[in-house]
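User: Fold this; tokens only.

Assistant: Input:
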Amino acid sequence: MNFYKNIKPIHLYFASIIAFVLCNIIRDKNLILYYILLLIGAIFFILGFFKGRSER
């Protein structure tokens, strides 16, 4: 997990925002991809949250 150690929490938050925006754009077109992107966005947000808390 060397990649996870070097990434800043703000980058994980931005990735979650991008995933949430993309999932809202394609919500009506592809329901499976919507749920996948929603899950990815939630995972990035949680990782960013815990990464920010561990750096204090």
